[in-house]
Amino acid sequence: MVGMLFFPQEKVLLAIKYLASGAFMQICGDSHSSHKSTVLSCTLAATIGSPTALADEKTLNLIKESALAFKKTVYVPSGAFWGAEDVKKMADNGKLKELTITMQKHPSAFRLETPLKEMNESFDGISKVLYEGPVKYLCGLAPNNVNTMAVACIAGHNLGFDKVVGRLISDKRLSSWHIVEAELKGDNGFCVKVTRKNPALSGAVSGLATYDSFWSSLKSNLKFYS
């Protein structure tokens, strides 16, 4: 069941908590013993700050159903994903055939789950490919590091989390940089490759330009669903 009946005063309080705290819809809903779809019903629109959550198919479908049921719009900030609007245009036209996102960071910049955590802590040599495959599975293994990849899956919606490829590389030389490369392919050999080199403090999860790009992208969010 999507949502539930609420008195107007309760809707206002729920919406204020969501907007003021910036917390996930589920967290706000739990505090009021409400379903997260109900939180969406109490807002004019919603922005998903951590799109890795959308790799979960149940969450993805619930948000789509709720947006449709309550006639709401859901947005995703493009953040550090360069060229998100262009990727979305290709996906809208069915022209996006392949999309690969490669993220390279110093080992100390990753916050990983097993088994990637152990791989990152113990590899020999200068660099190590920790993961290469569908972004869908990587989101659960590196939820703090791959929001950029998740945004790529939303923009490239005709491929989605199952077909957009994520490549995670741990590189001991990158103590001051985070590097994200996006490579896409379309019809008739069309190809674009973009590299974003973001200065970063040692051990930081996010680069120095990430916060500015996130807040700037809030002004022109990707429309995820409406």
TrEMBL record:
It comes from the Eukaryota. Pfam families: Asp_DH_C (PF01958). GO terms for biological process: NAD+ biosynthetic process. Residues 128-210 form the Aspartate dehydrogenase domain. SUPFAM superfamilies: Glyceraldehyde-3-phosphate dehydrogenase-like, C-terminal domain. One of its GO terms (molecular function) is aspartate dehydrogenase [NAD(P)+] activity. Signal peptide: none annotated. This is Aspartate dehydrogenase domain-containing protein. It comes from Romanomermis culicivorax (Nematode worm).
